[in-house]
Specification:
This protein is α/β, with parallel strands linked by helices and 554 residues long. The chain contains 18 helices and 20 strands. It has an eight-stranded parallel sheet. A five-stranded antiparallel sheet has the order 16-17-18-20-19. A three-stranded antiparallel sheet has the order 6-8-7, with no helix packed on it. Strand 16 and strand 17 form a beta hairpin. Helix 12 packs parallel to helix 16 and helix 13 runs antiparallel to helix 14. The model has no long low-confidence stretch (mean pLDDT 97). It binds 1-deoxynojirimycin. 1-deoxynojirimycin binds next to loops.
């Protein structure tokens, strides 16, 4: 059996996980303090987002030195201790490799700016358009927009060129057509592998291969031209071979990707990646595809997307990473659940819904206790570069401050970045000092200690889901078929393996919901037994946010 199918990954955003030294910023020793908690949850891998030396313009995704640990997070000794202490508890470490771009503070970029020809060729420097004379910047080479708003090109007077940055202006893109760049980056991956790392997450890895010709996108902002670019599969295979990744667990973050490419990335015979993150299911509440235009989630579209991706990946022999939350997403309970009346019920329903699909589940810190968006009301509470940029863009477009804040409170990446709520102590027990970003106001009710005191805790529900994956091969190995496709309220699917069947019924509504097929309890007449659920007993339909999982052998 392939090693990652029955595993579960827990994502740690170190800045907000646990502060061990009282400076308001989480750190590696904070993670060490919480290893017993993570082992109790039962996860296998800890994906830790970047803690490398960085000016933190994009919270560590702007790397200034790939092989140095930023002192605010700890030291190499702390890291070695983390790997070994985690290993003693059966936990493996996955690191986050940001190989598409560096920070503008990286030595390579600094040398490029000084005119060193070797390093100029590490980045993507181009002449402007419509230059009137050699000194004139002209216009940006293409109309591509960066992910955080504004042009993807920045004029660099010292070199008399524009450089490409698909993210913040402080994150120049690396030129993967240069074999030397590819060798350097493989070396970085090897460096961490040699330090006991067991897996890697590759940041926006499907953006590494830019189109051969740089031209305007006549239909959009450029994404479709540089996502899943011409040499991306070849570069990934080369990276796997030269960094020795075969047999390790790897996951690629794929921006604006498609099923066809995700099959190519993850089919075992392709020797590229173990699995991929795609984000289509997390755009069903974007009005006209615009993240900054609010809309209620379109549950029918969500169902359609899951059905297409789950069955498409199964038929083509690919493998999905399963997730609702990460450090770039608002909290799922606030988004597709009900953070007030049915917080516990909806947290559990959403957990079972995703964990029992075909793929490897990821739990983002705090998801296992049903953490919510913080509901910030002032722009001073935000830290994220994307949120701050878009606040200004929304105001420029004529929104009032109140309207712009309302949008941020639903869409900002900071919704997922607030300090982990460990207890009812000040700052949620995250730190003794004022945290770098405000803790959510509900920390006194929503925290690890209070959740774990309850018999039917969200934490224990997650633990049970993880146990089910380990005990029942059908979860890791089974096929998948979607049910109730016309039902606007219920997302339902069946997993099948040998002579076993597992049925998962999820009510996505605040109201009682019925099945098209008949009564929920009909499954019992059919010989199914309830394996897990978030309410006592069963009835004709599903109660608000109810999930029922039925199992039958034979
Ligand atoms: C995806 C990361 O998850 C996000 O936090 C970051 O801003 C971008 N990639 C750029 O590295």
């Amino acid at each position: 059996m392939t090693d990652f199918r029955n595993k579960v990954v827990y994502q740690i955003y170190p800045k907000s996980f646990k502060d061990s030294d009282g400076d308001g910023v989480g750190d590696l020793r904070g993670i060490i303090e919480k290893l017993d908690y993570l082992a109790e949850l039962g996860v296998d891998y800890l994906w830790i987002t970047p803690f490398f030396l960085s000016p933190q313009k994009d919270n560590g995704y702007d790397v200034a030195d790939y092989t140095a640990i930023d002192p605010r997070f700890g030291s190499m000794e702390d890291f070695e201790e983390l790997v070994s202490a985690a290993g003693k508890r059966g936990l493996k470490i996955m690191l986050d490799m940001v190989l598409c771009h560096t920070s503008d503070q990286h030595l390579w970029f600094q040398k490029a700016l000084e005119g060193d020809e070797t390093y100029r060729r590490y980045y993507i420097l181009r002449d402007g358009r419509n230059k009137k004379d050699p000194e004139d910047p002209g216009e940006p080479p293409t109309n591509w927009q960066c992910a955080f708003g504004g042009s993807a090109w920045q004029w660099e007077p010292r070199q008399g060129k524009w450089y490409l940055h698909l993210h913040d202006v402080s994150q120049p893109d690396l030129d993967w057509t240069n074999p030397r760049v590819r060798e350097e980056l493989a070396g970085v991956v090897r460096f961490w592998k040699e330090r006991g790392v067991a897996g890697f997450r590759f940041d926006v890895i499907n953006l590494i291969s830019k189109p051969e010709r740089f031209e305007d996108d006549t239909e959009g902002l450029g994404r479709r031209l540089f996502a899943d670019g011409p040499h991306v599969h070849e570069y990934l295979r080369e990276l796997v071979a030269s960094a020795g990744l075969e047999g390790m667990v790897t996951v690629g973050e794929m921006a604006s990707t498609d099923l066809e490419n995700c099959l190519l990335y993850t089919r075992p015979e392709a020797h590229e990646l173990s699995m991929v993150f795609n984000f289509h299911h997390l755009k069903v509440d974007y009005r006209d595809g615009d993240k900054w235009a609010l809309m209620e989630p379109d549950i029918m579209e969500l169902k359609r997307l899951f059905a297409a991706w789950q069955t498409g990946m199964a038929e083509g022999g690919g493998w999905n990473a399963l997730f609702w939350c990460n450090h770039d997403q608002p909290r799922i309970v606030s988004r597709f659940g009900d953070e007030k009346t049915y917080r516990k019920e909806s947290a559990k329903m959403l957990a079972a819904c995703i964990h029992l699909m075909r793929g490897t589940p990821y739990i983002y810190q705090g998801e296992e206790i049903g953490m919510t968006n913080p509901g910030y009301t002032s722009i001073d509470q935000y830290r994220d570069v994307e949120s701050l940029n878009h606040y200004q863009i929304l105001l420029d477009k004529g929104k009032t401050e109140g309207e712009a804040l309302e949008i941020l409170s639903v869409r900002s990446r900071d919704n997922g970045r607030t300090p982990m709520q460990w207890s009812e102590e000040p700052h949620g027990g995250f730190s003794e000092a004022e945290p770098w970003i405000p803790v959510a106001a509900n920390f006194a009710e929503v925290n690890v200690a209070s959740d774990m005191r309850e018999k039917d805790s969200i934490f224990s529900f997650y633990r049970e889901l993880i146990r089910i994956r380990k005990e029942m091969p059908i979860v890791a190995e089974g096929g998948i078929r979607f049910l109730e496709e016309e039902n606007p309220d219920v997302l339902a699917y069946e997993r099948r393996w040998n002579n076993e069947s597992l049925i998962v019924l999820c009510n996505f509504r605040r109201q009682y919901a019925r099945l098209i097929k008949g009564c929920v309890s009909d499954y019992e007449k059919d010989g199914y037994r309830k394996r897990i659920g978030n309410y006592q007993g069963t009835g004709a339909g599903l109660r608000p946010y109810e999930v029922i999982v039925y199992h039958k052998v034979g």
